[in-house]
Design a protein that fits this description.
By secondary structure, the protein is α/β, with parallel strands linked by helices. It has six helices and ten strands; from the N terminus they run βββαβββαααβαβαββ. α2 packs across α3 (about 110-115) and α3 crosses α4 (about 135-145).
């Protein structure tokens, strides 16, 4: 059976400190999976390791049965990890155009469609450095979803969104679930977790445990 995400006995050390400790997680069914925990508990570090940006010190990560790490990045995958990775002197469209050229999966019209979908004007030439926090967050969401991933990880996706933006984003997440897209997300808002998630895990001191299902 092809699992969506399979983490086995994964640990991560940095600067001599053990930050992720013997993580085990298997997801076989599409759905929405929440991870909660205090700042510094290891949530963001776990997501960066799943994304292939960090290599596990021990253990393995597989996405759709492909090993991740050591130069192998996940396929059919999108991630919102922070809003600091865009080129500040380019527009939102130009930033996404540059990112899309890596895999050449989507065209200009599809980029414009996803910008409109997240509430940004695709023809706006404003430089990203002049964006509000909410606009940067919307652009980050657009980047994560634009290539129609089957697995999506979202680290605090509601940050900087106004009330209408939060409502729109929750509806988007529910829509994605209906399309059999698997989503892992973190949120400081308990309402996001309770409304959206099929299963909830808690990260504490670098360890991951099931909280509810």
């Amino acid at each position: 059976m092809t699992s969506i995400l399979h983490i086995q006995n994964m640990s991560k050390k940095m600067d001599g400190r053990l930050l992720l400790k013997d993580i085990n997680l298997r997801i076989d069914c599409p759905g929405i999976y929440g991870i909660i925990g205090r700042n510094g508990s290891g949530k963001s570090l776990l997501f960066k390791t799943i994304a292939g940006l960090l290599v596990p010190s021990e253990g393995t990560i597989k996405i759709f049965n492909d090993n991740i790490g050591k130069g192998n990045f996940p396929k059919d995958f999108g991630a919102l990890l922070d809003t600091g990775g865009f080129l500040p002197h380019y527009s939102g469209f130009r930033n996404l155009k540059l990112l899309s050229s890596i895999q050449n999966k989507i065209n200009d019209e599809e980029i414009k469609e996803v910008l409109s979908f997240v509430g940004l004007d695709p023809d706006d030439n404003t430089m990203v450095r002049k964006y509000s926090l909410g606009m940067k967050q919307r652009l980050g969401i657009a980047q994560a979803i634009m290539e129609k991933p089957k697995l999506l990880i979202l680290d605090e996706p509601m940050n900087g969104l106004d009330e209408a933006g939060v409502k729109d984003f929750r509806n988007m997440i529910i829509n994605y679930k209906k399309r059999d897209i698997t989503i892992l997300l973190t949120s400081h808002n308990p309402e996001d977790i309770s409304l959206l998630c099929d299963k909830v895990y808690k990260m504490e001191n670098g360890q991951l445990n099931v909280l509810s299902s």
